[in-house]
Specification:
By secondary structure, the chain is α+β, with helices and mostly antiparallel strands. 28% of the residues lie in helices and 26% in strands.
Length: 111
């Protein structure tokens, strides 16, 4: 996804054993949105979690540059499509703007 000439990136702070975090990551992959996953419970990630005040998981951010320009973020359970729609609204400036990713197949749900 691009915002003018800047390529937008998605960062997901989560826990490897969290159902909501797993679901969000699966949905991001299913709709074709690349993202970086950061295990918020891993000791080596404490400084980045502190920097962004990560205290609720999952926590998802859309940014233009690694250490600045967070365009949109959400803390707590959210579907990937809802979050990406918020990002689309932010960058387009149009209320109700919809992110057009890959369609999620309704028959391919995990059992």
């Amino acid at each position: 996804m691009e915002n003018g000439s800047k390529k937008l990136k998605i960062r997901v702070f989560g826990a490897a054993d969290c159902t909501y975090c797993k679901r969000l990551c699966e949905e991001m992959s299913m709709i074709g949105v690349p993202y970086d996953f950061i295990d918020a419970n891993a000791e080596e990630n404490n400084s980045i979690c502190d920097k962004y005040n990560i205290d609720k998981l999952p926590h998802i951010q859309c940014y233009a540059d690694v250490d600045k320009d967070i365009i949109c973020e959400h803390a707590g359970p959210v579907s990937a499509q809802v979050f990406m729609n918020k990002v689309s609204e932010k960058i387009s400036g149009k209320k109700g703007s919809v992110f057009q990713g890959r369609t999620i197949c309704k028959n391919c749900k995990k059992k």
